[in-house]
Amino acid sequence: MNIKRAKEEIKNSIEAYLLKDEEGEYVIPEIRQRPVLLLGAPGIGKTQIMEQIAKECRIGLVSYTITHHTRQSAIGLPFISEKEFDGRLYSVTEYTMSEIVASVYEKIEETGQREGILFIDEINCVSETLAPAMLQFLQCKTFGNHAIPRGWLIVAAGNPPEYNKSVREFDVVTMDRVKKIQVEPEYQAWKEYAYRENIHGAVISYLNTKPGNFYQMETTVDGKIFATPRGWEDLSRLITVYETLKKKVDREVVIQYIQHPRIAKDFANYLELYYMYQADYQVEQVLQGKIDGLLLKKLSHASFDERLSVIGLLLERLSTSFRKEQEMEAYVERLYQQLKRIKKHLEESIVLEEAAAAPGKALTQEISLIEQELENKKKAEILGREEKATLVRTINTLEAYRSVLCTEKAEDAETAIERLQELFLEETEKLEACQKKSEDRLENVFDFMEAAFGESQEMVIFMTELNANVYSVKFLQEYECERYYRYNKQLLFEEANRDLLERINSL
Prior knowledge:
Layout: H1 3-17, E1 36-40, H2 46-57, E2 60-65, H3 71-75, E3 78-85, E4 88-95, H4 99-111, E5 116-121, H5 131-140, E6 142-143, E7 146-147, E8 152-158, H6 172-175, E9 179-183, H7 187-196, H8 201-209, E10 216-220, E11 223-227, H9 229-245, H10 251-254, H11 261-280, H12 283-287, H13 293-300, H14 304-352, H15 359-379, H16 385-407, H17 413-452, H18 457-468, H19 470-478, H20 482-506
Parallel strand pairs: 1-8, 1-9, 2-5, 5-8
Antiparallel strand pairs: 3-4, 6-7, 10-11
Helix pairs in contact: 1-2, 8-14, 11-14, 14-15, 14-16, 14-17, 14-18, 15-16, 18-20
């Protein structure tokens, strides 16, 4: 299965394993809660999805790469203790707590998360001395004499033997005690993640034209050459930063991340063309509704790859616009909820005639609560990038409002409420302007697509990519774009026809 489906399966397992009955006991007994064993090629995102799962499920996460551990650190150090049996004292060998188990308890103390995931990476690459301990860990959920705390689930990951010479195969007894998930690299599944994580448009449009280069692992006389999802994502981050610094990403830079000479060279050439098309086709002007007839003529004679690159540039700009609009919408909604609380507090102070509940003090208290929430979620490691941005932006705005009230000497509750409403209205107007800008950009791009391509395969590609992008899908759920629904309906009809013909042919 692909990485997206694997993520869903792990989340479903967590939900099932942590489900409790009316007496507070786990519905699936702990002894029947099989460890999840993820097997898949390196670089496809096995480790990364664990962080996503922990945040989305709001549970703790402790990660270990087991190849970095010795038998002593994994099991614990031996020591001699005395025990009495049948009235006689005996010297008995015991073990200190495993460093790994201790880390789980430390995480519980730090975050307060009493349920979580213990993730062990490269579990099938352990040394010979540690292999028996790993088998015991998977079968009995213990390291040495110490069990994993109740409520913590085990997920382990490993690479197939063709990718790592150190791989040890588990026996049938062990495999019969785990929930095995075989993960395969798949570009279409990764692309959804790429749009959500704002992967650079050049990477997405390049892989759209050459999806076979998404994942490659080859053995040559000089060793392994490869291109992996991890490499593409890290390269994307670098390209974005280099653009800010006005530095060039050439083949020598690309091959540092995409360690496959042919693919690295091909992408470096594509990236150079991508920047050239960005200038030649005046993408920003297209978004503003300015369509040059000469450019349309040039595009009509362009190669298919060039056309796809232009579509990719337009999609990248639209995605950025949609993402900013949705981030602002989340921020305005959060700000509204906080101001409602402040207003209620100030209104109560008016009724009770409490002078102590001054507007500045009410704002300070609300800011402190959000700061505490931010700190708690950071500590618990359940704070996503978007939520963090929303909270920080809300704090900054409330601090600005407090400063305004102080400067204007709005010391009574009624004046403060009225002024806060005026200030909030300014934010809603900014949001409306942001939404209108996104709507106009989408309509302008449709104008360009129709003028350049009409109802062609390029329009189908454009619609397909809109439907793959989480930001555009969410935006189009709220904004009624007639052409989107018309072309989308046509696209679905054509797909249904194609599926029907394929089924007829197979019969």
